[in-house]
Amino acid sequence: MPLYKRNKTWWIDFTTPSGKRIKRSAKTTVKREAQEYHDKLRRQAWEESRLGIVSSKTWDDAALIWVKTTEGKANYGHNIQKLRWFQTYFGGMQLAEISREIIKEVVGLIYEKRSGATANRYIAVVSSTLNTAVNEGWLIKMPYIKRYKENKKRVRWITVEEYWHLLTFLPDYLKPLVILSIATGLRQGNVKLLEWAEVDFSHRKIFIPPEKSKSGEQITVPLNDDALKVLRQARGEDQTYVFVRNNKPIMSPNNRDWRKALMKVGIENFRWHDLRHTWASWHVQNGTSIYVLKELGGWKTLAMVEKYAHFDSSHLAQYVGNVVVGEQPHGTNTVQLT
Question: In the chain, which end has fewer C-beta atoms inside a 10 angstrom radius, N or C?
Fold first, then answer.
């Protein structure tokens, strides 16, 4: 019985093609209105079964909700850039139209130009956006999206000699940023947008607030003499930002001048982020434990630091002599194992 009365109010009761029972009040005492509501629910149930949707909401609707719920979180800016890229392909499309095949085709464009790891980060944005649609009741289930195989984490570093050569060929406006990066291990974004309010000379520390930290937590960075020197030299250039050029923050230090200096020195396959790898590698090679390195670098887990643990074992040579058995003592019986 699809329609029936209870206390003068009409109720709806039917089973969807997928076997789900729909039983609810039509919230009306007029049978015609109840019938219209019933027919609407039946139609939605049919669309749900055939198309996997419960509404005509679009990618734009889901993306807008997802943006609002993720604002302020780590990688928010990067995710916004990915959403803008997807907008070219998915903008205005109904959620039912965004199939696994279409997603694979679109993300494949990224994979062809970049890497499996980068493509997977784009897939994560699509998945999160569609999952938001599921939570909103606009999508019954999101399509399964297979991830790409990723290569092992790349660790590239330079020697101290290469570092000094690089400084020689860098323009003056880039040298302080490189020196601070090597001295602290700070990420590019935290260096180029470092503010004086984050620098504490008296306690020899930099405080990166949660909203500017990749981990979403405040990072306290102790300063060595190299870092203090370059920061003191930068004082007076700007009231807000530490490093400026033409009265503006240096937004793109990984630029043509940077690449030209690398080429002159003969350093290949080296990105700006590899300055952080260099800082971490030098620490390990000079005896810093990965537990201490984790805190210095602001990593959340040891797993993120372990790639440096066996990076270079030359610093361990001084300890290998701590366990030396030597020759068997005269008169000692040899135990035969059977």
Answer: C
